[in-house]
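Hello,

I think I submitted the CA2 job twice by accident. Can you confirm which output corresponds to this input? Input:
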Amino acid sequence: MTERFLVVNGPNLNLLGKREPEVYGSTTLAEIEELVSQRATQLGVGVDFAQYNGEGELIDALHSADSNHAGVILNPGAYTHYSYALADAIAAISVPVVEVHLSNIHGREHFRRRSVTARSAAGVVAGFGSLGYVLALEALASRFS
Ligand code: CA2
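Support: Only one job matched these inputs. Its output is below.
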């Protein structure tokens, strides 16, 4: 069976490459998705992509991934730091969730150093820019190889 994974990005990440390139780089979300797609092809797995600005939409995406995907790569954006609802959704689903951050959240402002969502994640990748999504895919795919 070919495993399918969901890559879901949270609020404002649709603006990647278009605003604040000094913080988040000049790569657009579409380019990150292309990078992940190419690696998925090499690994022989499938990937679907989504981006939502709303907390509820992200939660719905996690709920449906529980039935439709073998794992989730999630960048929860700023919800990382305070959304107990998103944290509960990650804890509620059975498929592994890898949390990804483009920036090293531990080297940034105090409020970004805490992730309330990481507790129930299978793992966290932070600080490697778009490569982080590829590393997360490799980590998930390795669970099924
Ligand atoms: O480093 C990450 O990936 C973050 O999850 C990105 C979030 C931030 O709130 C987290 O603390 C760390 C912010 C995404 C905002 O993305 C923008 C992209 C371009 C222009 C403005 C915002």
